Amino acid sequence: MSPRERKLLVIFCVTIFIIVNLLILPRLLRLRTQMESDLVLLRSQRDESRFWLGEKDLWLSRGKWLADKTPQFENEGAANTALLETIQKGAAQRKIEITDVNVVDAVEHGRLKETAVKLNAVGPSKQMIEWIHELQQPGNLQGVKELSVKVEEDRKRIRCQLNIIRFYTMKAQ
Fold first, then answer.
1. What is the 3-state secondary structure (H, E, C) of the chain?
2. Nearest of 168, 172, 149, 173 to residue 82 by alpha carbon
3. CA-CA distance, 128 to 133, in Å (whole number)?
4. How far is CA 36 from the centre of its chain?
């Protein structure tokens, strides 16, 4: 090969090398940037997973507590009846008058169901506060979801609108 041909060959190879680099280099840089962001995301997920694994015993004990404490009923009607009985029993003990009772359709939350009762109640201030406190005990998996309070003019009685909920599961058949 002559010196001129060698020179042309070198120029041709350098030109091809530059063109290939100009086409491939941006793609490689984009891939590197994408891989770096993926690595940050994966490290974040790893750290979060380590945190939850550290909390494993706590969540297992909470799951066991829920399994032990969650009431089980044959059907939705039995759950509604049990909730109404609990409400009426506590209200009667404290001389609280209950009116406008409406049972709300059950809502599912995974394996748990939620039943609710909307009602109006009127009673002495102290007894009403004790009754509302009693309704919200975590061991019963029930609570007051909504509460509207109006104090009557004599300031001895309270008028409340409540939405009381209870979580439960269905008995296995």
1. CCHHHHHHHHHHHHHHHHHHHHHHHHHHHHHHHHHHHHHHHHHHHHHHHHHHHHCHHHHHHHHHHHHHHCCEECCHHHHHHHHHHHHHHHHHHCCCEEEEEEEEEEEEECCEEEEEEEEEEEEEHHHHHHHHHHHCCHHHCEEEEEEEEEECCCCCEEEEEEEEEEEEEECCC
2. 168
3. 9
4. 32
Residue 119 β-bridge partners = 162
Token pair for 46: 């790893």
Using one digit for the tens of pLDDT, what is the confidence trace for 35-92?
999 999 999 999 999 999 999 999 899 889 988 888 888 888 899 999 999 999 999 9
Tell me the pTM: 0.67
Tokens of 59: 């969540």
For residue 17, the number of C-alpha atoms closer than 13 Å in the C-beta half-sphere is: 6
Cβ–Cβ under 8 Å, residues 115 and 165: yes
